[in-house]
Design goal:
Blueprint: H1 4-12, H2 15-25, H3 29-41, H4 49-61, H5 65-73, H6 82-97, H7 101-113, H8 121-140, H9 144-156, H10 164-176, H11 180-192, H12 200-212, H13 219-222
């Protein structure tokens, strides 16, 4: 039976979100992961990190590698403790073993910085390279977020040689595919003139697109309200 708060949450959620949650309740692990991302990041619904984590845990328990990766990432903070790092590494390893690019990339970061594991640059490089290979595969298959992450890898030189022009190319592909994070990084490239001619007017337009496709952190700087959500202080 629904509590009043839960019922209010369900009523506010857009129809497509309710459909994804229904798929999750029917046992589709990947749907649980998708719903978790939506709630954890507040994408067109009020942000609910606790609910997002619960959905990631359900997805991981049901065998979805990305669910395990996302659950592991929830442990990772700027001031991560060893107590938090150990379970994070275990979950990220499950994700990466299941060929989830995010899990491999995040696990590489853990080896780079020695969180939950001994610092191992060689192992980190292997994981970054595997992540890039998986992102490239998924980008070729039409996954806009994967295209964005190919750009991130190029911009950072993780898994490949650093190449700012290539980074911009893939941020554009991600943004064109309606990935708000891709639009965010593309806007930053325009603002800073990284791999592309500096253009603050274009940067603002791209931030507005990021907001329009549901990437709410971009909305304040784009001076518009988040799509599907009331205007609020960011």
């Amino acid at each position: 039976m629904w509590s009043a708060a839960a019922l209010a949450q369900e009523v506010r959620a857009p129809p497509e979100i309710r459909a994804i949650e229904d798929q999750c309740r029917k046992g589709m692990a990947a749907a649980c992961t998708n719903a978790g991302v939506i709630y954890h990041e507040g994408m067109s619904v009020p942000r609910d990190a606790v609910k997002g984590v619960e959905l990631f845990r359900r997805a991981c328990s049901s065998g979805d590698p990305r669910g395990c990766s996302n659950l592991g990432i929830t442990y990772v903070k700027e001031t991560i403790t060893e107590q938090e790092a150990v379970p994070a590494v275990r979950l990220l390893e499950r994700g990466c073993t299941g060929n989830d690019a995010l899990g491999c990339r995040s696990l590489g970061w853990m080896y780079d910085h020695g969180h939950g594991v001994v610092v191992d640059p060689a192992r980190a490089a292997q994981l970054y390279a595997k992540a890039l290979m998986l992102y490239q595969r998924d980008c070729s298959g039409g996954d806009a977020r994967a295209c964005t992450m190919v750009g991130v890898s190029a911009g950072e030189g993780k898994g490949s040689t650093r190449d700012e022009k290539r980074a911009v190319e893939f941020f554009q592909r991600g943004c064109d595919g309606r990935d708000g994070l891709g639009c965010k990084y593309l806007a930053e490239a325009y603002e800073q003139g990284l791999g592309i001619t500096r253009d603050r007017v274009q940067a603002l337009a791209v931030r507005a697109k990021a907001c329009a496709v549901g990437y709410t952190p971009a909305c304040a700087r784009a001076r518009v309200a988040p799509a599907g959500a009331p205007a609020r202080v960011q």
